[in-house]
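Worked problem 6 (solution included).
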Amino acid sequence: MPATAARDLENIKVGNTPLLDVSFAFPELGDKVKIVAKAEWANPGGSVKDRAGYFIIKDALETGKLAGGRILLDSSSGNTGIAYAWLGARLGIKVALAVPGSIARHRRAILEAYGVELFFTDPLEGSDGAIREVRLMMQAETGRYWYADQYSNPMTWRAHYETTGPEIFEQTDGQVTHFVAGLGTSGTFVGVGRRLRELKASVRLVSMEPDGPMHGLEGLKHMETSIIPAIYDDSVADSRIAIATEEAQEAARALGRKGGILLGPSGGANLAAALRLGRDLVAQGREAVIATVFCDSGERYLGERFWAP
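Solution. The predicted structure is:
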């Protein structure tokens, strides 16, 4: 790896985001159940995907996968692409992305501002259509690109095993009892889950996914009807929760109006799942510290209609 890239990587700080206690906004939880969440918008690129993006690019540079001026190629519905984009701009790496044609205008503008080359795919095919497009591009021009493949790259889950998991354990003083997170690449859930289970065998791991194939939760997968990420490990979850788009949006609205914190839809879905779990535990008279991840800020989604009453 070139000395300049190594130096620049050393100077980039990703992770160590704040852990927010949002229980105050939901009095029905009482004083025995807490919900805490990682404020991932505090990362340099504004989302949880900075962690995986950093680990993927660092590994690629260290192992020579980007040698010879290869272009980093991947599919993305938004935040991972933004992570690649700002890291690529900082490190002098060209980035090309296949994205659904329905990508939000705001995100497209960010990617274009960082100089990313974009290839648009059928909006109705979602993230799976973008994956298929990248595979075709790799077959056509193997020597031009390096396929980062966030859905199969072990660095995607490793990033959370090495950083997010230990951070949650330390920031809760080891009191975390449950971890809840949605499945997209599945990297956050698998990485954090594996690490927390090593640190505390009694922790309960709850995965969340949309309640059907036609949903509005960008970045999340309804696994039964999707291309399953190679890094996904269904043995990690102790239990599963299905969340409707409207339930996720309502949770995001509630936290904005009751807690002064704006979440994106995937963070709202994580919160909705944590709330459902928390209410069940309250009904059972149990104590708990439920940890989750707020993937990005709602400021990136203020143009969407669900914020209206």
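Discussion: The chain has two domains: 3-43+156-307, 49-147.
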